[in-house]
Design brief:
single chain, alpha/beta, Arc Repressor Mutant, subunit A, Serine Threonine Protein Phosphatase 5, Tetratricopeptide repeat, Rossmann fold, 6-stranded parallel beta sheet, 4-stranded mixed beta sheet, WH-like_DNA-bd_sf, transcription, TPR-like_helical_dom_sf, DNA-binding, DNA binding
Length: about 575
């Protein structure tokens, strides 16, 4: 465990080797808090000024911020943590120091991997034990509040999930006090209300449970002008009828239709952390927009596996449901799913009876938004054709997260974070290959393994296919498999399995290109895969350089080419092998 630690889950604290590091004054504390929440990214000076001053800043604001940074550097000098100038602002280099928010997230995520309810509850209890009060208690500037609301929501979601598990375990009596306090603090959070009613009723206090509902209904009507959600009304009716609520009710059970993981995710730890940091920095308070993460990459790079694994990692923060739909923009399982058909699948997964399904797109959109209102749901929209393909499916509820995957960069999608998945590193490729083969052959021929990774273009799907082929051929050596993959014109056929058609996958990407991009892509097969520039491509195509450059950038957006510098490109080894089949 790091000997330097920062604590945000309560009043701001810093410790070095067990000794408190004093951060004097609200100004320095606010600057440090903003830098910590930025997760190592630069924070512009104007944002720091807005965070420190609630209202018009003084003419000396820039100088005061620089003085505050200087004071912080002095306070942190012996810790190894540094504040670096970056553009017109600063960024914090934590130098491996611990952050309680990261540890909370790690512990909460462990619950998703536990199968036993008691173990899940214990993992969440351990995560919640890190909280020492409201995050950054005492720092009340509005610029911080929106970020802090999102962090507080993580705690409430974990608490709801833990209480739900403990209700299943029969611990209703011991939860009444905690839930009474939670409802008093968050009177409009109907999940807490339902849990308190359930705990009271199971403990023999039926009349008190009914009173909790009446108080909540009156408060909602008087202060917000609305009635309780149907799930809470259904629970009320069941208690009125004398039915002991053994569960909170089917309508309150989390929605979940995520496909099972085909295999553990390998080699994407840094990408997952980038997404988690972006989500932690996303404003999740009143007036906030729902979070959207757009993941793009070429065929075979592992977008679906990444999105599904991410969904399971983040499930604790979205306890009302985790939903998945394959939009099939490049799929082999059938024609592309339009927005209306996708909404029908999502609504059915969210429990809407078939007889209540609206016939038209607008009706389905309205029903979708109504069902998501007030809920925290994670939605994975897999294999989108373009931003317009997913626009009708995006939720309006600020507590929701949508993860969109596509083979094209969705630059026009208003997203919280955009991530382009790249080819595997050599180390990640070796790990994947060795874990799938499952015996000692890869360790005995490490150079041949690296040759196979190169022939596979370091694409996870191809690496897995090659490893599966070797696993099923116990008489083959790694070198022999590498020799079979050396011929670019037969390589895709060698890597095909019953479940993996790499040539077909690349066909779908190629067929989505317009004729002009297709022609240029074919011509590029005659150029060395790692040495493509705009001038040479223009001469080859007989086109002006500026026009060829636009076409090349279009191929980059479709992940048929990779940009290596201004006007310079390369083709993935496996994509190049595919291009050879087109000429």
């Amino acid at each position: 465990m790091s000997k330097i630690s920062f604590h945000l889950l309560g009043p701001l604290k810093c410790q070095a080797h067990g000794t408190p590091v004093r951060i004097r004054g609200a100004k320095q504390q606010t600057v440090l808090a903003i830098l910590l929440l930025a997760g190592g990214k630069p924070v512009a000076l104007p944002r720091l000024i807005d965070a420190v001053w609630d209202g018009p800043a003084p003419s000396t604001a820039t100088k005061q911020i620089r003085n505050a940074v200087s004071d912080l550097r002095h306070a942190l000098a012996h810790t190894g943590v540094s504040i670096l100038a970056s553009g017109d602002g600063y960024r914090l280099d934590r130098a491996g120091s611990a952050l309680d928010l990261d540890e909370f997230t790690r512990r909460a995520e462990l619950a998703a991997f536990k199968s036993d309810p008691a173990d899940k509850a214990e993992a969440l209890r351990s995560a919640l034990s890190l909280w020492r009060g409201r995050p950054l208690a005492g720092l009340t500037n509005p610029a911080l509040r929106s970020q802090l609301a999102g962090i507080e929501e993580l705690r409430l979601a974990a608490l709801e999930q833990r209480v739900e598990l403990e209700l299943e375990l029969g611990m209703h009596a011991s939860l009444i006090g905690e839930l009474t306090a939670a409802v008093a603090e968050h009177p409009f959070r109907e999940r807490f209300v339902a849990q308190l009613m359930t705990a009271l009723c199971r403990s023999g206090s039926r009349a008190q449970a009914l009173k909790v509902f009446d108080d909540t209904r009156r408060r909602l009507r008087d202060e917000l002008g609305v009635d309780p959600e149907p799930a809470l009304r259904d629970l009320h009716l069941r208690i009125l009828a004398g039915t002991r609520p053994d569960a909170v009710g089917d309508s309150e059970l989390p929605w979940n239709n995520l496909p099972g993981d085909a295999a553990p995710l390998t080699g994407r730890d840094s990408e997952q952390e980038l997404v988690r940091r972006a989500l932690r920095g996303h404003a999740d308070g009143p007036g906030a927009t729902p979070a959207v993460v757009a993941v793009d990459g070429m065929a075979g790079v592992g977008k679906t596996a990444f999105a599904l694994h991410l969904g399971r990692q983040l499930a604790h923060a979205y306890p009302d449901g985790q939903l998945y739909v394959d939009l099939r923009a490049h799929g082999l399982a059938g024609p592309r799913l339009d927005a209306s058909a996708a909404l029908a699948l999502l609504l059915r997964a969210a429990g809407l009876p078939a007889g209540s399904m609206p016939a038209d797109l607008e009706g389905r959109r309205a029903t979708w938004h109504h069902r998501l209102a007030g809920r925290r749901v994670l939605i994975i929209l897999d294999d989108a054709a373009a931003a317009a393909h997913v626009a009708p499916l995006l939720p309006h509820a600020p507590g929701c997260l949508t993860v969109v995957t596509s083979r094209r960069r969705l630059s026009s999608l208003h997203s919280t974070f955009q991530l382009s998945l790249s080819e595997f590193s050599i180390a990640a490729g070796r790990d994947l290959f060795g874990s799938v083969v499952g015996d000692g052959r890869p360790q005995a021929e490490s150079a041949a393994v690296d040759e196979i990774l190169r022939h596979c273009g370091q694409l996870p799907l191809a690496i897995r296919s090659a490893a599966v082929r070797l696993r099923h051929r116990s008489a083959w050596s790694v070198s022999y498999l590498a020799s079979r993959l050396a011929d670019g014109r037969s390589r895709l056929a060698e890597l095909s399995t019953d479940s993996t058609g790499l040539a077909e996958a690349f066909d779908m990407s190629f067929n989505r290109l317009d004729p002009e991009h297709q022609r240029l892509f074919r011509l590029l097969s005659s150029i060395a895969a790692h040495d493509i520039d705009a001038d040479r491509a223009a001469a080859l195509a007989g086109l002006p350089v500026h026009h060829t450059a636009r076409l090349l950038e279009g191929l980059v957006d479709s992940h048929m080419l990779l940009a290596t510098g201004p006007g310079r490109y390369r083709m993935n080894e496996l994509v190049h092998a595919y291009s050879l089949q087109l000429v």
